[in-house]
Protein 1
Amino acid sequence: MRYFEYYNSPLGPITLVSDETALVAVMFYHQRYYEKVLGVECERKITAPIEKGIQWLDLYFSGKEPDFLPPLRLEGTSFRRRVWELLMKIPYGSVTTYGELARQMAEEKGIERMSAQAIGGAVAHNPIAIMIPCHRVVGNNGALTGYAAGVQKKTALLNLEKGQLP
């Protein structure tokens, strides 16, 4: 069984979804792929993972870097899960590029090149927004390209990490 609860962030409603042991989705209301990820029947209930997720979001939106991560369950292909794991290594307040993530993946796999577009596709399907910080990925020229919840939210999240509260 899956459970959900809403969180009222300064950037709009966020839906947290979990089973009994881990968060499986943290998504801005109606961001891209919202219906697909949340299409499973859910009951509204605050589980232990959702409670931890709310605590994490409270800290984050108060302008503090949370010193813990709620239990997460990454559901996706092995490629997407690996990209999401790389995203979690991007430090708070920092950014990287799709090209740099592609370079890291190619190096890991022992291949000459990896497509930055393939990385972008995996980043776009990240079901655990903010905690898996896909907002910290920018274009090679530093452009704030793409974000499933909209570039305005991406900008606000990056500004928040620089000490500018929304």
Note: The longest strand covers residues 2-9.
Protein 2
Amino acid sequence: MANGILFFTRPGKKAEIPVYVRARVDGKDFMSRIPETSTTAEDWPDGKHAQKQIRTFFPVLGTIATALEESISNGTFSKEEMDALIDNAVYGESREKARAKIQKAKEEKKRLSVLGYYAKFLDELRDGVRKSDKGVQASERTITNYQQGFNRLSEFQKYTGEELTWESIDRDFMARYIQYLQGSARGDDAYNTNTCAKRVKEVKHIIRAARLDGVTNIPVPEFKFGETAVDSIYLTAEEISRFADADLSGLSRGHETARDIFLIGCYTGQRVSDYANIKRDQIWTGEDGRTYISIVQKKTGKRVVVHAGPELCALLEKYGNILPTLPDQVINRYIKEIAKRAGIDEMIEQVSTKGGKAHKVKRPKYELLTSHCARRSFATLAYLGGWDSVDIMSYTGHSSEKMLLKYIKSTPEDNARRIAEKYAK
């Protein structure tokens, strides 16, 4: 059996319970109790990532794990060395108390500032210590959004020359911040209305988190910044067929992989992050002879089951039920090239607000294609095909019809045809 380190407890009648460590070396188990260390049943992590969280929540255990793993790797492990390493990790810490106290004071001072707390918030999201609002690991997209929000606030503080404090964040601050994001100070990087609305939501969320953590008690500003609708595209069934059959001669193998990844999204209605890590045991054949896939959505933690039609089954067979992966930016670049070859070049007019002014621009459809358009295409085509909203949501994982309808990008003409087919006699 594989070597490894495992921390565990033995709950008893007392509220405080001892912590133990087990080292498995060459099929043998060696166990010791960690001195000066205890916890409670409520504070002890459990679940899939418990061992990783334990090392983060209890730094001394992380130190012990590292020392023991190094001992095993070096081939010097023994029970005597194990106990010595544990004692050194526990009691050696006292020698650092004076220095740690000074460092902690510095960190506490930094934590109390707005940007200091924001940076700590970001670190905790990356480390998995802080979960999303839904109690799951924050996605890379979420972390990137908050990082961008942190960068913009840092820039705004430098632009104004005034230190950003909790007390300074009020309605007037929010108005000036938006004016900066949309104004000439950012030049060609001036934000459109929707992105500004996102930055406002992030500031509010940081304040709520800081209030819960006891860092500040300022109220969340009652500032609402309206979002404007941004035209989001989807592919019709005919365009998906053309995309699937596009001539890829002269293109890289990565282009073929990107095409297949996009098509899987069209057939399942999932995000790329949801099906990128599907394992073979998540794919099965039901009693009805049909193929199904069980997917736990990364963003929400919700489990959905989708039916694999003939096109999807062909892709599953092509990759041996282990679906391919590529970075999002690579997928987005390659599928634009493929869509251009497929003649998906309808001119799409987009209207956005940037720098406080409305802008209209027409671009060929293939230039607007992203990996997320696959999920939107599935939802829209299912809707036009007569699926009930509840059925579509059982695939997409949306928690409300209101959220789902944001994905439905049918035109008035599409809707008229759908209604005529459903009701006309």
Note: The CA atoms of residues 22 and 97 lie 28 Å apart.
Protein 3
Amino acid sequence: MRSIVSFDMDMTLLDHETFEIPDSAMKALEMLRERYVVVLATGRDMDSHYSRNLRELVKPEAIVHTNGTKVTVGDKVIYESFMERELKERLLTFARDHDLAVGVTIGDEDYYIHRERVTEFDEQRWGECGRRYCDPWKLLDMDVPSMCYIGGPEGAARLERAFEDLKFPLFAERRGADVIEKKNSKAKGLRMVCDYFGSTMEEAYAFGDSMNDYEIIQAVGVGVAMGNGDPRLKEVADYVAPHIRDDGIYRACVHLGLIADAHDTGGGRA
């Protein structure tokens, strides 16, 4: 039986300064695949236009997509959850009336209320905006697992007060938040993956950086917060890795005995 090693994507594996996965992290993933089940547990839909290339780089055996609303093993979907139409309508109406950018990317297209705020965010973050905007009200008749809020923490707090059935964990840089039904989480999704592979959460490792990783970091046997991560996540982690730009993934895997470094012949727990 192989244990699970799970990774968040953004600012855990993927450095937003270079928009690349560091070479040392890629090396760690290559070494881990020899003994462990490598899993992605992310806020992204890894099947979307913006993420498929990253999925092919990491080559996970299983993926917990969009904060636990979809779980896949290879090409097989083992869990999927969608928001009810009434909830979507309430959320989009509230966002429209309170000048908040809320929406989601599905496939290759972007559906956002107040898309001008999303464009401004992308241009500040990446220097450009390549979104393919569509009418956000079409979401009412589409399968929507979760959404995203773009803006400061005060907007996320306003949404949280208005929607008791949703949670809004902030991104690490605190310029947006995931919009998730409280029944779903990365932890719940990873537990399904463990069951599928005949492993346990107590034997699993999870790496993350932001508050959507809070539950999974607490639920696994060894939870690892990135050095660049949210201070609140570090408080509940079993280990704090170095910064992503300081070979954090590789050095943490060596420290935990998951992989051997270049001068060691040892290994981790299988």
Note: The CA atoms of residues 208 and 223 lie 8 Å apart.
